[in-house]
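Changelog entry: the 16S rRNA (Guanine(966)-N(2))-methyltransferase RsmD record was regenerated in this release. Current contents:
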Amino acid sequence: MRIVSGQFKGRRITAPKKLPVRPTTDMAKEALFNILNNQYYFDEISVLDLFAGTGNISYEFASRGTKNITSVDQDYGCIKFINETATSFGMSIQTIKSDVFKFLEKNILKATIIFADPPYGFSIEDFSKIPELVFQNNLLEEDGVLIVEHSKHTDLSNLENYSHSKGYGGNMFSFFEL
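Regenerated structure tokens:
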């Protein structure tokens, strides 16, 4: 896994093999950030990275100048790895060890971009809880977007606030907006 662009472009990040993760591929990540680059100034936004895993997406935002990043994951090893990596790069990434659904129910932080990369094996009911809780609790800033990464075999187009999807290999990004 590597950082695709920004201040830390090309830096490789090697996560411990024991972490229960499936990092977003470099190709899919680069395509996603090309889309976001046309809509946002990264140094002016706030980001909430749900099911953060290795922190791959958080590091990419930080490398591009985002200062307000919160990464949420329930695995202690993932949170520890994100903290260590962010410290070694001098990135300001706040981490929260929590079940994402419990976090979304109680959270009061708003973000411009909320990125969720849940396990691909989630049921459609579990996937649907993510936008439901985000919009029910008004967690997106004005002109913000929720992006849910999932397998190309999962269809989220029937969910409320769905806008569109983009596919890259076996990865899909579904966008949700007000």
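Strands lie at 46-50, 68-73, 93-97, 111-116, 140-151, 162-168, 171-176.
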